[in-house]
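Memo to structure team: turn this sequence into structure tokens by end of day. - J.P.
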Amino acid sequence: MISENEKQVFLCKRLQRLGFVSGRRLRLYGEEFELVSNPTPDGRGYGIDGVSRKSGRRHVRIPLSVTQTIENEICVNERLASSQSSQKQCA
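Reply from structure team:
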């Protein structure tokens, strides 16, 4: 089982591979943002700093559906790893 810190690091790296990375333009919540940071855990989920023409610079939460999908991926990977190690012990 991985620690909470390892989970956060994995999730942030996965979000970056999905395009939540500094320098990208992204449409979230009806606004187009120029991202100026990489994803970080913010206590209530994960967020990223962006600049928009409408609202200026602000911290934007990454949609919960995206982070939950990645968390589910982590759980599946953990289950696969534990079942493979169980099979090795039995063999």
